[in-house]
Amino acid sequence: MEETLSTVERAVTISQVAALAGASTGTASTALNGRGALRPETRLRVQQAADQLGFVANAAALPADRTHPHGRHDHH
Question: Could you report the per-residue pLDDT of 9-29, keeping only the tens digit for each?
Fold first, then answer.
């Protein structure tokens, strides 16, 4: 039986991105969320590692102010 990507695919973690980029997980997080002061080459190295691994940010892991433009969740 041949396995498809969907049956064996695992989510890429920020730790994996950081390791590939040669950075700490905190630095990788800062680089990917666009906040904080980092050297441009560090930010680029982290972004390239994330792209290479197919990293997709988990919306549930983002701070509330990043999930809604006004920092709240509307429940209608």
Answer: 678 999 999 999 999 999 999
What pTM does this model have? Answer: 0.66
Question: Can you tell me the distance from the alpha carbon of 39 to that of 31, in angstroms, rounded to the nearest whole number?
Answer: 9
**Contact (CB, 8 A) for 18 and 46:** yes
39-50 core/surface letters (b: 16 or more CB in 10 A; e: else):
eeebbebbbebb
Give the pLDDT confidence of 54-69 residue by residue, as tens digits: 998 876 665 555 544 4
In terms of Cα–Cα distance, which of 42, 34, 26 is closest to 65? 34
| Three-state SS letters, 7-75 | HHCCCCCHHHHHHHHCCCHHHHHHHHHCCCCCCHHHHHHHHHHHHHHCCCCCHHHCCHHHHCCCCCCCC
